[in-house]
Amino acid sequence: EAAVTQSPRNKVAVTGGKVTLSCNQTNNHNNMYWYRQDTGHGLRLIHYSYGAGSTEKGDIPDGYKASRPSQENFSLILELATPSQTSVYFCASGDVGGARAEQFFGPGTRLTVL
Amino acid sequence: QQKVQQSPESLIVPEGGMASLNCTSSDRNVDYFWWYRQHSGKSPKMLMSIFSNGEKEEGRFTVHLNKASLHTSLHIRDSQPSDSALYLCAASSSSGQKLVFGQGTILKVYL
After folding, report:
1. Successive 10-residue mean pLDDT values, chain B, 111 residues
2. Could B34 and A101 be called an inter-chain contact, meaning their C-beta atoms sit closer than 8 Å?
3. What is the least distance, in Å, from the CA of B94 to any CA of chain A?
4. Which of A28, A61, B15, B45 is positioned for an S-S bond with A57, CB 3.0–4.6 A?
5. Tally of CB atoms within 10 A around B42
6. CA torsion sign, A29 to A66 to B27 to B84?
7. Would residue B51 be called left, alpha or beta, if left means φ above 0 and alpha means ψ between -120 and 50 degrees?
8. Closest chain B residue to A43, measured at CA
9. What is the pLDDT of residues A42-75, one digit of tens each?
């Protein structure tokens, strides 16, 4: 079965601090995605990647950077964390688009910015 | 920007009852619809997908798609308490590599 892992699972950060969320997938999928989930908003796309070395802005990229150093790893970076970034973050991987656009999600990271 | 709208926001049904959830896309380029289920505190998992007009049944779950109106619906018969979850609808186009998610429908099944 598809395997996506995230670390840390829970994180408390201070306003203005730097936060790095990590994601690893063993599915050999080309595409990886970072979402945040807040009550009433479903899943909102922050950044995504088509392969190692590439990152693309999603729908809500402001305040976030992403890094894809390898096929397996995709990181989300908050350079200056703010309380509005308190949320649950999900990483996902997927093969290609179209009819094969199914995404497999990691367990999520709960981030609290104080 | 493409939007996916789901209704109702929440739904309460008795055990053994039928639950019906709706989803519509505003993007005429959408070709594929996906339904994900997310139990409380867990990650979303794909439940069913539908790409052609008509219906598709898997056990107690049936999805319908009307491509002309870009509307899909998910029906759960003989609902069980374990079906209580957030149901997310997502849409994608044949040329796109992203899923656009709706805000979800919270389903609660009571004994």
Report:
1. 89 98 94 95 95 94 96 98 97 85 96 91
2. yes
3. 4
4. A61
5. 13
6. positive
7. alpha
8. B101
9. 899 999 999 999 999 999 999 999 999 999 999 9
Can you tell me the distance from the alpha carbon of A102 to that of A21, in angstroms, rounded to the nearest whole number?
A: 23
Cβ neighbours of A91 (radius 10 Å): 27
pLDDT attached to residue B39: 96
Average pLDDT score over residue span A90-95: 94
3-state helix, strand, coil in chain B (%, to 5): 5, 60, 40
The helix/strand/coil state of B64 is strand
Residues in chain A: 114
Burial of A3 (0-12, 13-18, 19+ CB in 10 A): exposed
Contact A97 B92 (CB under 8 A): yes
Mean pLDDT over all residues of chain A?
Answer: 94
Phi, psi of A4 (to 5 degrees): -125, 125
